[in-house]
Amino acid sequence: MRAFKYSRATEPKSASKLVSANEKAQFLAGGTNVLDLMKEDVERPTELVDISKIQLTDVTESGNLISIGGLGKNTATANHPLIRNNFPMLTQAILAGASAQIRNMATNGGNLNQRTRCSYFFETAMPCNKREPGSGCGALEGVNRMHAIFGWSESCIAVHPSDMCIPLVALDAVVKIQGVNGEMKNIPFSDYHRLPGNDPQKDNNLVHGELITSIDIPKNNFANNSCYLKIRDRSSYAFALISVAAALELDGKSIKDVRLAMGGVSHKPWRALAAEKFLKGKTANMANFKIAAEEEMKSAKAFEHNQFKIEMGKKAIVRALSQALDGGTA
Ligand code: SF4
């Protein structure tokens, strides 16, 4: 690992100021992503600003919002009664991610800001536009089994690795941010992460030095009929091949409202808007779930090794919706 300057901030404004003053500075919170990347010599910050002691850790309720602190730990957030009772699919998603040890260290803001990447990103002998803009994409003609089927570009076909972010995009969360000039900003979750386009090195729409202070989730009526389904190669410590967050609000047998989002399929958490549009107002049954899945997967485009994701995606959508209808056990 290369030498770097270390400093500690005690509140969001000074943390933001310190990082924004040095274009090669980064925040250090749980360290579960940035330290790995530094050890692999993929990320080379000259300065780390430790924000782990800033008190942005609580889960709070105010009016119609539940707010989770940007520096709260993933495990504590998943197990908080306000999250378990109001957004059980968020609890399920967080607990499906990484390992228990990593979830105990990783922060909520860090989960959103972990790098969108594939294994070639770590392989410094291979081209990677995300690691070194303009060098090419090793995955396009390489092993691309884990890669995107929606929203990719010739520049990058990696997928965002988070589980937590999939229910957050489905639930219309809002990311609250400490701006670099002392101002506060809000970004709707669906606008937070980016598709790769011609700038795959940019994973999200933060300005350098901006800090996530909280993630706010509006209350809803989905708690009784929601679930997070994750399909992966082994049962722990593996990224999703496909994941689905599914939530239904029912009026008898009719779907009054529905939220559906997918992981493992795109550079950003993928909101399944085509499926949602079809399902609204329809009867909640297998036949309609199957049509919705076909609608969503129509626009998927796969590569040599990940063709299976298209059929798997359809089946995962149907299964997640069925589990949500049955009360949401995942
Ligand atoms: Fe790099 Fe993205 Fe290509 Fe992977 S898919 S090699 S992260 S540019």
TrEMBL record:
Short name of any one Pfam family annotated for the protein: FAD_binding_5
Domain of life (superkingdom): Bacteria
Gene3D superfamilies found in the cross-reference section: 3.30.465.10, CO dehydrogenase flavoprotein, C-terminal domain, Uridine Diphospho-n-acetylenolpyruvylglucosamine Reductase, domain 2
A molecular-function term among this protein's GO annotations: oxidoreductase activity
Keyword tags: FAD, Flavoprotein
SUPFAM superfamilies: CO dehydrogenase flavoprotein C-terminal domain-like, FAD-binding/transporter-associated domain-like
Statement: the UniProt record of this protein carries the keyword Magnesium: no
Domain FAD-binding PCMH-type: 1-222
InterPro entries: CO_DH_flav_C, CO_DH_flav_C_dom_sf, Diverse_Substr_Oxidored, FAD-bd_PCMH, FAD-bd_PCMH-like_sf, FAD-bd_PCMH_sub1, FAD-bd_PCMH_sub2, Mopterin_DH_FAD-bd
Coiled coil start-end: none
PANTHER family the UniProt entry points to: XANTHINE DEHYDROGENASE FAD-BINDING SUBUNIT XDHB-RELATED (PTHR42659:SF9), XANTHINE DEHYDROGENASE SUBUNIT C-RELATED (PTHR42659)
Name under which the protein is recorded: Xanthine dehydrogenase YagS FAD-binding subunit
Organism: Halpernia frigidisoli
